[in-house]
Amino acid sequence: MTTALVTGASSGIGAVYADRLAARGHDLVLVARATDKLRELASRLQSRHSVSAEVITADLTDPAQLAKVEDRIRKGSAIDLLVNNAGANVAGTFATVDAAELDWLVRLNVIAPTLLAHAAVRGMAARGEGAIVNVGSVVGFAPEHFSGIYGATKSYVLTFSHALMAEFGPKGIYVQAVLPAATRTEIWARSGRNVDEIPGVMEVDDLVDAALVGFDRREPVTIPALPEAAQWEAFEAARHAMLPGFANAKPAARYAA
Length: 257
Hints:
Blueprint: E1 3-7, H1 12-23, E2 27-32, H2 35-49, E3 53-57, H3 63-75, E4 81-84, H4 99-127, E5 130-135, H5 150-168, E6 173-178, H6 187-190, H7 204-216, E7 221-222, H8 229-242
């Protein structure tokens, strides 16, 4: 693969992905709201790794600006790897945040990665190769332990990744869901939390390096903080074991009056 597009690339996980992918020889398309940070990162990576680095300033919660990135994917030079990293949370509980904040969060965490992947898959499928990395969260497994809808949006990222892999894996597209646990990024301050008060926080470099090991192994789901892969495998096995039980025309006997 030759060109990677990374969203949320101006800092945190996205910036480290950009650095690691440039070191692997990928040309880059860097997307974020902070133009100055993007340009500084692009200049540094071009100098250090001799790759090209295109900058697109875009607020992915704005439909017109999101469409600009979609157009770049569809109509520009081929994007071989899409890293859907941009994401955030809002401070407060479901009851206390404004409706406008909920709308903003869904646009960023759900709609943006969906539409960017939609823009990418047709070209990838036509070429018979490509990859999409969707950065979710382990909170998607435990939304009841995290206030608001953040966990629900990250649950979507996981199921969306499963659906993409089922549909496009046979067409040569690899889809990876990366599920970080607590990681030292700006998301904590933006959601009103002090990261230093949270136990077991992973450094961003460690997270991305582990995620790329999972990428090279073609893992469908990578959970860098989880010590035992067998636990994830058991979770998936239990999920698949339920599927035959859904094909019943009558309610289960346990619901008989």
